UniProtKB/TrEMBL annotation, chains A, B, C:
Keywords: 2Fe-2S, Dioxygenase, Iron, Iron-sulfur, Metal-binding, Oxidoreductase. InterPro entries: Cholesterol_7-desaturase (IPR050584), Rieske_2Fe-2S (IPR017941), Rieske_2Fe-2S_sf (IPR036922), VanA_C_cat (IPR044043). Signal peptide: none annotated. The keyword Iron-sulfur applies. This is Aromatic ring-hydroxylating dioxygenase subunit alpha. Residues 25-126 form the Rieske domain.
């Protein structure tokens, strides 16, 4: 993985070959996004309308009325489905047109594609299979921390003008914190670069653990927890094709043990759904759950606020990086350094999944 | 006409074959637009400068100085023509350069293309022939309602990021009023969809008549005329290749007869000039003339104001529709429904005109 | 040079053949631009980061970290060079990576291209040779007026959405002043068009001298110098491939002689560095130096202010011209007139330089 050719070659891929791993659950939305209005969102190159019917059911349809091509996302949600905003055709969650105002007969071809979706732990997952109409081969991922009373969470949906794998790279290599996020979750740049790092992989998962005992707590940590001068920090990153789970935090030295599964201290549980929009753009669904210190009740609001700021900083860097990749073109090779081990493994997994589907 | 391929194939058409019916008068401007400044407007892919000389003559020239290519529309209008804003070359309405400041001799090649234009009923029409320099084969259309003392009119010029035929579709099928224009000229959606409809055609014209007796007057009608709970509404639409005339209105039930040519009641006379800018964009020149109820002197201002609002709503829908057509590509077929008869006939006329010119 | 084909063909040129004269010094920046932040600037299609190290040395590097492609211009300047803002790699002015935080060994390939730059008379010049790594064959140009106590100067850097040669054309033909710059340095249009003009050339230089004795002083001249009704104006323009020097001004009739090298009166010494950004865009580095009349101490500020206004007017015209050239395409020929002699010679020089490098 010494070149940017993986990312670049995608753009040239033919229409029938997906540039993304298929037979996967991808994040389509957070539950909180689906209220009384339909949402237009392109996912893996498919223009989709996401909606919650009056009855509460979540549905994902091709975002196009079969009559005159207006996006169904310009229409209105009713109890039985979504009604087109141009001439009033009504579609059920399974994609069938079930009413054409002023016309008795509904032609058999009056229908649109529907996608398999499921809602779980406040996340709406969508299945993209390699065969049209095939059923999911496994359940959507669990993410119990959204429902764990120990935590409270906030979320955001960011659009990236950059290919999805650059976001994987960023999240799998947290050594950038000391250069990019000095004002929030950063800290001493050299301590980040010199952190003890352990990378393991299993199936399509990569796990990176980085420990930084005895380091100064960064601004967000100090704002949320009464640390002293030093803390023992950990970063546990799990990559799983369509999303990452990142558990970071710190304990007070001598009080808690940094790798005790039941350790106390200050925790940030990040969920990161990264769903390609196109070969060159992506949706980034993040949530951050944090525990509350008894003496600092406003912790979670502060953590969410600073998390937004942090992820804005990442977006600036990654979009600038991608713009530059386009500017310099494929011939501009990448020189790997010591911190790239996790990201390079994740790229190999994606490459293998794409290869096996050809 | 079950697919969007007509609109889409245009983009691929070779330069020498027009994607638009030729040997037609198209609207270039409303008279009120041509004051002391030249106007730049691309019409049927031709960049044109429109101007009224100090002497009052309307002219249309290729919008490019033959010296160094500055648009003549960046220059100034004089009594004898238009003067370039870079080095002062002066062009007559026939396209000849008639002055090069500081130089005696004017080369024979110092000239630009001029177009045939005529001004009639407050409309500036431009002729696009299939042969360069050929004279018009028929007179420009009449539109006497602009000069009828019974009416007052207002107008607007809208730019569309959508191909011209989607505007034809929209105007030939007024069943969308109940979904798109609820706040102005809409009304009960089902009554619109179930209106009695008669479609006839003759030569290159299509006429659609829709009657909706005994229906509630929509907001604009109530604002402009003292209707009661119900009125008898009519819609008469005439399509004529480059423009449509739409006569709509309502009479009070029992007082006037809905299809009496001299009927009273409330009238809206819409003129709709639809001139392609390029294969994928269009100019929409609309005017609305209305009669004044004796007790409601501000009628026409209200009607114009609400007409603007209505046509803004149409633009939002049609541009969203076209953006989606581009997104889904040619393979996305259209399923026709009962209200499409008029629009489908108009598309056949355009297709036949394009075919016969190949 | 009757067509716009030179400018247009550039876009189609293959990557390995430069569209710009090489083995030339081009302006990269004014000295005053390089403070404590790096500058990103694309020059002759090369994305370059310009910087002044803490030690004061000016450097120009390929604007891309060899690790993950972030622009180095997103990083920070240190005494020893520039540090990447993503993972902290540090680059010396010669392009070598001299530090990878957290890693002992620096791979040999960890480096970026560096460009030859030199700083002289408040101008930063960059050398673009035809062979990679070749040394400059001549010294960077002198421009002593920036250091002449007789003058004070101000400067600006403008971006043009137009190819560089259109700016040459504009500056070599000052007859446009009477049409474009009426409010500042213009004057009577006809006197400009009829000015006595002498064009000479020598090597790669073109010199245009225009004299306009007994003409009314334009607004900027009157604002800066106590002229009466008439003045004797001169314009001396020197084109030198990558830049022009323009000496204009006026003397009081009967007091000074218009072509005496030591003449008094009001002087404007313009420096115009024109550096292609791409085939279709350019950077325009201008400075204006002026002498101060003893009774009018604020002269220079007024002159700079009005010069900015003047060059804004030029940009509007030239960008409109180029947009129109693109619109009409290559087939739209140019008709030369009497004022084009200097500009046509400069185009021949560029064409010859490009030809000889193929």
């Amino acid at each position: 993985m010494n070149t940017i050719s993986d990312a670049m070659k995608m753009s040239a891929s033919v229409a029938n070959q997906s540039s993304f791993p298929l037979n996967q659950w991808y994040v389509a939305a957070f539950s909180g996004e689906l209220t009384d209005k339909p949402i237009a969102r392109k996912l893996l190159n498919q223009p989709v309308v996401l909606l919650r019917t009056g009855g509460g059911q979540v549905a994902a349809l091709e975002d196009r009325c079969c009559h005159r091509s207006l996006p169904l996302s310009c229409g209105t949600v009713e109890s039985g489905g979504v009604r087109c905003g141009y001439h009033g055709l009504l579609y059920a969650p399974n994609g069938s047109c079930i009413e054409i105002p002023g016309q008795e007969r509904i032609p058999a071809k009056a229908k649109v594609t529907s996608y398999v979706v499921t809602e779980k732990n406040h996340i709406v997952w969508i299945w993209f299979g390699s065969e049209e109409g095939s059923a999911p081969t496994h359940d959507a991922p669990d993410y119990p921390h959204h429902d764990d009373p120990k935590y409270k969470f906030g979320w955001g949906v960011y659009h990236y003008d950059a290919p999805y794998q650059l976001i994987h790279d960023n999240l799998l290599d947290l050594s950038h914190l000391g250069y990019v996020h000095l004002k929030t979750i950063g800290g001493n740049a050299r301590q980040h670069m010199n952190a003890e790092m352990k990378v393991t992989s299993e199936g399509n998962m990569v796990r990176v653990i980085r420990l930084m005992p005895g380091t100064p707590p960064p601004p967000t940590y100090k704002a949320a927890y009464p640390f002293g001068d030093k803390c023992d920090r950990w970063q546990e990153i799990e990559f799983d094709v369509s999303h990452l789970r990142i558990w970071t935090g710190a304990v007070e030295p001598g009080k808690d043990v940094i790798d005790d599964p039941d350790r106390g201290g200050f925790h940030m549980r990040g969920f990161h759904g990264i769903t390609p929009e196109t070969e060159t753009t992506a949706h980034y669904f993040w949530s951050m759950a944090s525990n509350k210190h008894p003496d600092m009740p406003e912790t979670i609001d502060t953590v969410i606020e600073q998390t937004k700021y942090t992820f804005d900083e990442d977006r600036v860097v990654i979009e600038a990086q991608y713009k530059n990749m386009r500017q310099f073109g494929e011939q501009a090779a990448w020189t790997d350094i010591h911190v790239d081990v996790g990201a390079v493994r994740a790229r190999r997994i994606i490459a293998k999944l794409l290869e096996s589907s050809r």
